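Sample entry as discussed:
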Amino acid sequence: MDENAPLTVFPYYFNGSDYYPVIPLVFLIGKKRVRSQALIDSGATISVFGEETAETLGVEIEKGEKTVLGGVGGRIVGYIHKLRVRIAGKDFLCPIVFSREYLVSFNLLGRQEFFKKFKIIFEEKKNLLKLE
């Protein structure tokens, strides 16, 4: 990591009963810029977004590479798309699974590509997430 990399600090999102490391991001699709947000999930191998986000972005879900994801909640079918995103001032291609079966309230940013771009610090005591 670059010793002089800028530090970006995000306060955790409070949903009324608990705090979550949710951060803003921007999808860069051609000349279009679409703001979104996602929960940082160190337990997820790949990022997972729902059908609503795909529709907003104009992504045809089934045109991606089919995959089956398994986790605590069971198995879902999704399709991998590589999209350019901007997070904390860095632009990069990020593989994202879009699924009509993903019905969780948060989009997820998983480890693949995203975790390679940053030093990630979870400060649970202060409800802060830091990206360097």
Notes: The domain at 8-131 is CATH 2.40.70.10 (Cathepsin D, subunit A; domain 1).
